[in-house]
Design goal:
One of its GO terms (molecular function) is metal ion binding. Keywords: Lyase, Metal-binding. InterPro entries: Aldolase_class_II_sugar_metab, Aldolase_II/adducin_N, Aldolase_II/adducin_N_sf. 36% of the residues lie in helices and 16% in strands. With 213 residues, the protein is an alpha+beta fold. A hairpin with a 3-residue loop joins strand 7 and strand 8 (162-167). The longest helix has 24 residues, at 170-193. The structure holds zinc ion. Zinc ion binds at residues 29, 97, 99, 161-162.
Amino acid sequence: MSRASTQLREEILYWCLESVRTGLNFNTQGNISVRLPEHEAIVITPSGVRYDVLTPDEMVVIGYDGVVVEGDLFPSTETDVHLAHYRARPDVNAIVHTESPYVNVFGAVGKTIDPVLLNMVLYAKGPVPIMPFEFSTNAEFGARSAATMGADVNAVVWGNHGLLSVGADLAGAFKVAVAVEANAQVLAGAMAIGTPNILRLADIVIPDGARLP
Ligand SMILES: [Zn+2]
C-alpha cells in the first residue's frame, strides 16, 4: 500500500497537465509536491518526464530527510527546495513550481510583483518578492527561497527562472500560481500606460459571508 493514494497521485497529474493547458509551463518545466504529514514525507513529480506521458504511479515519495521511499524514477531536481519550504512553513501542504512568462518578465529585471488584481491579493496575500538568480537544486537555495518568501506571502519569484507558490492544499497552491501570472501580465501592461493602483490586503474589506472568487 503506497503512502500516497491513487486519488492524490491523479490529482497531482491533473494539475501538472493544467499547468501546461493554462500556459504556466511548457515541456517538462515545473514540478508539484504534496505533504504526507502522517508519513513525514512528500510526494513529488519525477524529474524530466513530459506531463502528457506521466502516469500516477510514477510520482516519487520522499521522506522529510530527503531519502526516496517509493518510486523508480528520479524525483524532481528541486526536491530539496520543496523540502526546505515545507520545513519553513508548517501551514503549507502543497507546492507548485511554474515558469510562466510574465512572472519571468519581472524576475528578469528584479522587480517585485505588486498586487493590482483582487485574486492576487487574496491568494498570494501581498507583493511577491524576487530572489536573485542562482542555480536552484540544493537545500541552501531552498532555505534562501523560503526566507525570501517569508511567513505571510504565498509565492516567491526565482529571478531568471520561475515561481514557487504554496498553499494549504494543491488547488490553493495552483490558484496562487495562476493569480500571480495574471497579475504580472496586467501589471506589466498597466506600468506601460500609467501608474497602477496597488492593492493591499489590509486595506480590503471583505464583507461577512462573501464568497471568494
Ligand atoms: Zn524550474
